[in-house]
Amino acid sequence: MSLKKNTIIILLLLLNSCITEFIPKTKETKEFLVVEGLVTNQNGPNTIKLSRSFPLGTKNTSNPVTGCYVTISDDLNNVFDLTETDAGKYITDSSKFWGKIGRFYTLHIRTNPSNSGYNYESLPAQMIPVPPIDSVFYSKVTIQEGPDGTPSQEGCQVYLNAHDPNSLCKFYRWEYSETWEFHIPFPVPNRICWLSTNSDVINVKSTVALSADKISMYPINYISNTTDRLSVEYSILVNQYSLNEDEYQYWEKLQNMTEQVGGLYDRIPSAVPSNIYSLDDPNEKVQGYFSVSASSSKRIFIKDHFAGLVNQYSADKCVADTLWGSAPPQIPNPIYWILYSSQMPPYSLITYSKGCYDCTVRGSNIPPDFWNNK
Fold first, then answer.
1. Does residue 360 share a domain with residue 337?
2. Can you give the pTM of this predicted structure?
3. I need a labelling partner for 231 at 20 to 30 A (CA). Which of 24, 90, 96, 348 fits?
4. Which residues constitute the domain of residue 231?
5. Domain count within the chain
6. Cβ–Cβ < 8 Å for 320, 351
7. Model confidence over 250-293: pLDDT tens digits?
């Protein structure tokens, strides 16, 4: 056998060998405290979530920090206690505390005293006023054109306009909540439902370098044609938050990192600085941020025709078999659901996917209040 043939065989063996995951060694084995907190000027409880980070290479599951004593103080020496309602979730009493524009707020944490409690504190953060959102609107986006030049596939881009006539808010952040109505195209008992999700991306913008404190056509969310969000009716609620410069830099750095390594709810890189520190150990790292923001919001509904939407409940995806006869016979897999029955001639269309039969597998068959009151 020639040397050339031997080389080719060795290369083929290497290409077909198993790939072993490489987990680099790191000195950062300690589980850091992770703080997620937001105080606004809106009615309702404010929430602080406490958890522990995970060492690199470990399974990312919930790791809440329970039994802590958590308070928020202001610059008038008022102190407000938070109550733990779920594991690691601490909320304010909405009858006693709500954020006020112009005030400075500080978060205080003492971890479970029965487990050698440690003390943490945030830097004081001022609540800066935020202007109302001027408008939220949408535009159709052509994904692919048909042979006649008209769109054969369309998506939807949602935009936002805002401005501050007083130029008090220079740094902005946005979150949104989506809700949409979807239908199962078969005569089943639960065929109309609503589904809601919250944004998992970071949207921030600074107007410092602009000649006017004005934001025009900011792309808040893009909706592709691969979901059923646009199939019946869609709604988006956009929340606008004011930021101070330090918090803006935090979100901007986090945005850059998440765009490179993953989503907002992946592990937070420890290189992103926090405004929370340990009172017991100045070298201890804390992750997350205590946010203090005034907020405003605006909701719109979209009920329009979009070309080329993917049908998640098409016959080729849902119909598993056709059973002939007035009564469906026993079949090898007895767990199935009838999507449609006919008497002339007698037959039934069946599915093995409950989601094709019952929309509550994905959503709720009870419309949200704002849907009925629109």
1. yes
2. 0.84
3. 348
4. 133-243
5. 3
6. yes
7. 999 988 887 765 555 454 545 678 999 999 998 999 999 999 99
